[in-house]
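Duplicate of #3305? Posting structure anyway:
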């Protein structure tokens, strides 16, 4: 067997993707501004941009702050939300209730620029194989990203044996699109109880941890990525 790859899993606290690659013998680390949920010693608490140039073979950024780039968040650029966004600075969050709409709107556009800058830094990282996850983007977000960014591969958890809906966009450089690993599941018809169960991610109740449950990578997708991306890269390195 060829030598293990040095892999960085960016913007992940759950450890799902890190453990999937580690199970296949790779030298893998995760990185996020928050601690890892599993208290591993293979997790770096820092801005991912601080560690992109440490000689990685593969980068998978699975949960970048994408709220400001995706279609579901475009409305806040024009009519700012009532509550301050989590990414705003502490002083901005404290002052938010008293800020005029114009000032709130300016903050939302600045956060869009910051999200695009983080995405672009990951895409342009000095790493030969890169995957960056992000939902479908709105035009304002796409216009701020690198021109060489390809169309994303859209995958669903049920491709990999998980009975759920969650369209996930994968922007790939130096990596092949993922192939489905389980064809036994058939999406249920809209309006059925099964369809509601499959839509649990989107139907999650509001709360402080909603973002965490909605952003978590499914085990089946992580296993497919580790097997296919890690396997292809190992063959190339052999």
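Output from current build:
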């Amino acid at each position: 067997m060829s030598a293990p790859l040095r892999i960085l899993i960016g913007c992940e606290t759950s450890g799902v993707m890190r453990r999937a690659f580690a199970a296949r013998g790779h030298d893998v680390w995760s990185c996020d501004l928050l601690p890892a949920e599993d208290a591993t010693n293979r997790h770096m608490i820092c801005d991912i941009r601080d560690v992109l140039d440490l000689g990685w073979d593969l980068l998978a950024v699975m949960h970048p702050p994408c709220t400001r780039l995706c279609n579901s968040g475009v409305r806040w650029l024009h009519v700012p939300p009532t509550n301050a966004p989590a990414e705003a600075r502490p002083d901005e969050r404290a002052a938010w209730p008293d800020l005029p709409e114009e000032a709130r709107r300016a903050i939302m556009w600045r956060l869009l620029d910051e999200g695009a800058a983080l995405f672009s830094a990951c895409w342009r990282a000095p790493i030969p194989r890169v995957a960056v996850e992000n939902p479908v983007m709105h035009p304002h977000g796409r216009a701020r990203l690198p021109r060489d960014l390809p169309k994303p591969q859209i995958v669903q958890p049920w491709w990999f044996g998980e009975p759920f809906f969650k369209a996930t966009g994968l922007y790939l450089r130096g990596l092949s699109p993922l192939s489905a690993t389980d064809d036994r599941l058939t999406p249920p018809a809209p309006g059925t109880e099964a369809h509601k169960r499959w839509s649990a991610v989107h139907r999650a109740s509001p709360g402080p941890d909603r973002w965490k449950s909605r952003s978590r990578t499914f085990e089946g997708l992580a296993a497919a990525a580790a097997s296919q991306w890690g396997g292809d890269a190992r063959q190339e390195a052999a």
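Confirmed duplicate; merging threads. The chain has a mean pLDDT of 86. The domain at 6-66+121-237 is CATH 3.40.50 (Rossmann fold).
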